[in-house]
Design goal:
It is built from 3 helices and 16 strands. With about 240 residues, it is mainly beta. The protein has 2 domains: about 100 residues, GroES chaperonin (10 Kd Chaperonin, Protein Cpn10, Chain O, Roll); about 100 residues, 10 Kd Chaperonin, Protein Cpn10, Chain O. The strands form 3 sheets. An 8-stranded mixed beta sheet has the order 1-6-7-2-3-5-8-9. Strand 6 and strand 7 form a beta hairpin.
Length: about 240
């Protein structure tokens, strides 16, 4: 299992330290240890346990995927020689924003401990979106999609619905990226909330949060994350 690399720092070291370009320092305001569901049931487990299938394990379910922005880099660095970010976009985060990011990156991040608080360094490219008050800001050309379900007639199925991972309905959308290192990558620009879209074959679709009873972004609602460039078609326009 991935394990964070931990370092202890003093408050002055943390505040005066300079972070690299393209990286964001986050304060982990949420902990999975002993966590309870919204119904009051304790669902926390030992995060050191390993499971054969990480896609359904409690470890994956309880990984912290949102945190508060503490410090931003001096700039985002993009260069076509491949030494910077893989795409050109704006820095749309501000200190005190709460942001949601890639679960695997969270498990592999550098962790800083300071005065009983935990901080992590997360690449900007792995942050999907943020909330500033009631406003949602989409980052890095990502959109959030409501899942689309199809009915199954399998007689042994517990639930007669199955999620269709090839499409979604856009719930939140922001700015497209300006450019990619790979010239064949181009963001789909004509997207609006409510559009039902089809994804390119084999596109990775990431859950923003994994369990509705633990979700923090938008009540019990769950969303999938995908970049604009991986959207193939708008199947129908929103109302």
């Amino acid at each position: 299992m991935a394990e964070t690399f931990k370092q202890n720092l003093t408050r002055s070291q943390l505040e005066e330290g300079k972070i690299p370009s393209n990286t964001v320092l986050l304060e982990m305001t949420h902990s999975s240890e002993g966590i309870k569901s919204k119904g009051g049931i304790i669902v926390g487990v030992n995060l050191e346990d390993e499971y054969e299938d990480e896609t359904t394990s409690h470890v994956a379910d309880l990984t912290e995927v949102y945190a508060k922005v503490v410090k931003l880099p001096d700039k985002l660095y993009y260069n076509k020689d491949g030494t910077g970010m893989p795409w050109d976009c704006d820095m749309d985060l501000m200190p005190e924003d709460f942001c949601w990011f890639n679960a695997l990156e969270s498990k592999n991040a550098v962790e800083i401990l300071c005065e009983d608080k935990s901080y992590r360094l997360i690449p900007y490219t792995d942050i999907y979106c943020s909330k500033r008050g009631k406003d949602v800001i989409m980052l890095n050309g990502y959109v959030l999609c409501k899942p689309v379900f199809v009915h199954t007639e399998h007689r042994l199925a517990v639930d007669d619905r199955k999620e269709d991972k090839t499409r979604g309905v856009i719930a939140f959308v922001g700015k497209p990226n300006r450019e990619y290192i790979r010239p064949e990558y181009v963001d789909f620009k004509e997207l609006e909330v409510g559009d039902e879209v089809m994804f390119n074959p084999g596109s990775p679709v990431f859950p923003l949060e994994r369990k509705s009873y633990l979700a923090q972004f938008d009540g019990n609602n769950l969303y999938n994350v995908i970049q604009r460039r991986r959207i193939a078609l708008v199947l129908s326009k929103g109302n």
